[in-house]
Amino acid sequence: MTFDVKNKTVLVTGANRGIGKAILEEALQRGAAKVYAAVRNIESAAPLVAEHGDKVVPIRIDLDDPSSITAAAENATDVDAVVNNAGVLKTSSAVAADAIESLQFEMNANVYGLIRVAQAFAPVLKANGGGAIVQLNSVASVKTFANFATYCASKAASYSITQGLRETLRDQGTQVVSVHPGPIDTDMGAAAGFDESASPSSVATEIFNALAEGRFHAWPDPVAQQIGGAYQSFAENVVESDMEESPA
């Protein structure tokens, strides 16, 4: 299953900056007819509209507000692909005083937000021929870093949900891609304390390459590629295999 973005309509959450902005720009560069810039604050997308004109349509989505996701799906009925890029991060270790609160905050956006987006937009994609869902999951979904262990836990959970979506949505012709960036030069990357980071454009390029090539996993930057290389056998033989046995 592959997806060509040319002449298609794409929705990108968190599109006003960082990786989301790079994804929006890459989609337009590859010939997308329209990109919905899904942001919490509509005004934050004004510079994108000023630069790209009516090919960019701001729409409100706040992963903490389920009603905003439902409303967006009801309005953006022409969407062919959804890139769920928005997410949150707290720098909390597993024994930090605020660990539970941090994990609850991260789970609500990074996991429940993904589920809400999938629930709202899967029927839209089905009605439009299948399309694609892309989830930003991070290398932190397969490797825990102690200083932000709660974030890693939330991303491991979102990766698990993404695997489930791949199988669940296959029958309706929806391609699912799980993206696992390493350190990226964004505000979130700075908050995590990354010193050397790759460009957000590397993530955007890899996303659309994975869609075009029919790949489930996308490892965009040097750190991600190192981890992805070590993980490849498990990914191919377990995660991406059609295992029919029920879990113990």
Automatic annotation (TrEMBL):
<protein>
    <submittedName>
        <fullName>Putative oxidoreductase</fullName>
        <ecNumber>1.-.-.-</ecNumber>
    </submittedName>
</protein>
<keyword id="KW-0560">Oxidoreductase</keyword>
<comment type="similarity">
    <text>Belongs to the short-chain dehydrogenases/reductases (SDR) family.</text>
</comment>
<dbReference type="InterPro" id="IPR002347">
    <property type="entry name" value="SDR_fam"/>
</dbReference>
<feature type="domain" description="Ketoreductase">
    <location>
        <begin position="8"/>
        <end position="187"/>
    </location>
</feature>
<dbReference type="GO" id="GO:0016491">
    <property type="term" value="F:oxidoreductase activity"/>
</dbReference>
<dbReference type="InterPro" id="IPR020904">
    <property type="entry name" value="Sc_DH/Rdtase_CS"/>
</dbReference>
<dbReference type="Pfam" id="PF00106">
    <property type="entry name" value="adh_short"/>
</dbReference>
<dbReference type="InterPro" id="IPR057326">
    <property type="entry name" value="KR_dom"/>
</dbReference>
<dbReference type="InterPro" id="IPR036291">
    <property type="entry name" value="NAD(P)-bd_dom_sf"/>
</dbReference>
